[in-house]
Amino acid sequence: MTLEELAASTPPGTPWLGLDLGEKTIGVAASDATRMIASPLELVRKTKFTQDAEHVLKLMDARRASGLVIGLPLNMDGSEGPRAQSCRAFARNLQRLREVPVAFQDERLSTTAVERFLIDELDLTRKRRAGVVDRTAAAWILQGALDRLRDAGVR
């Protein structure tokens, strides 16, 4: 579904989670209940799909999150490669476990932007960046979706 459809299908006053699906980890971020601000939440080390999905669903329950925004790693020309297909498969398989409203957000260059921020603004070493990049990228992705909706006048 589109971000606009996600907003229309989830109750107002409920937060969303944002996911940055990597090969080895899942960065997780959460919005506030007003869906104005996204914050890094957690880094999940991937194991098996069912365990990973159950962990995400538990985080949704704990936060009373009503929807998910998943980063979609498009190629620079806008086409979808294997990583984007993997993200779509994760969403499809997650919805087999539970009906969860999901929208995708273009995440091109999100990790690069986050790494630059962590280096330039926070002066984090490579070792310290490793623990925060994916969850911060998830917040970057979710914040981009929230900003896009706000700019379009959608709440």
From TrEMBL:
Compartment(s): Cytoplasm
Cross-referenced Gene3D superfamilies: YqgF/RNase H-like domain
Key word Secreted present: no
Role this protein plays: Could be a nuclease involved in processing of the 5'-end of pre-16S rRNA.
Name of the protein in question: Putative pre-16S rRNA nuclease
Matching SUPFAM superfamilies: Ribonuclease H-like
UniProt family annotation: Belongs to the YqgF HJR family.
Keywords tagged on the record: Cytoplasm, Hydrolase, Nuclease, Ribosome biogenesis
Listed PANTHER family: POLYNUCLEOTIDYL TRANSFERASE, RIBONUCLEASE H-LIKE SUPERFAMILY PROTEIN
Enzyme class: hydrolase
GO MF annotations in UniProt: hydrolase activity, acting on ester bonds; nuclease activity
Gene Ontology CC terms: cytosol
EC number(s) on file: 3.1.-.-
Pfam families linked: RuvX
Residue ranges constituting the YqgF/RNase H-like domain according to the UniProt record: 14-114
GO biological process, one term: rRNA 5'-end processing
